[in-house]
């Protein structure tokens, strides 16, 4: 198996819609028989300020409240958020190391300062990266990007900046990585579902969004971090 399946990192500033961008990318690929595991964490706003997050298990569609700004003695405090024990347990189950024969893509929304401090999903990230893994997609705040890459020694990140990137091109690159991963599964090959042509066709729901990026827009910003750097 390929020990160096890429890690796509969707990055941007605070409030720059990284999760929305990720949701659009996933919307373009879920109809292509991609077996996705992991979590996406849509946020909530109260009085114009982020007030909490819900966690969605992408493999099952189940969801659980992850955290909020409302104090609760049962909860694990990180910064101004109180993380519910049920939400943390739910996310840790969703981020257990996957069976590579049954998983094409792992998604983690998001990796941030709490993980850098050893909390929330830090242990799950360590386990995921300790073994051969499918392609992964993370969301990371731009100011933490270099620190996250260094902390988890990611030698082959594909950095996707939401301020410049195309949703369509990102989904296309993720699918290329998925095809390569499937072909590498010599012990249990998985046939790739037929796709018209060799690029992704946007479902009607996302066509306007995908078409919104001008042709001159740089679609993916690639940065490789190796020992020599």
From TrEMBL:
<dbReference type="GO" id="GO:0017111">
    <property type="term" value="F:ribonucleoside triphosphate phosphatase activity"/>
</dbReference>
<keyword id="KW-0808">Transferase</keyword>
<dbReference type="InterPro" id="IPR004948">
    <property type="entry name" value="Nuc-triphosphatase_THEP1"/>
</dbReference>
<dbReference type="InterPro" id="IPR027417">
    <property type="entry name" value="P-loop_NTPase"/>
</dbReference>
<dbReference type="GO" id="GO:0016301">
    <property type="term" value="F:kinase activity"/>
</dbReference>
<protein>
    <submittedName>
        <fullName>Nucleotide kinase</fullName>
    </submittedName>
</protein>
<keyword id="KW-0418">Kinase</keyword>
<dbReference type="Pfam" id="PF03266">
    <property type="entry name" value="NTPase_1"/>
</dbReference>
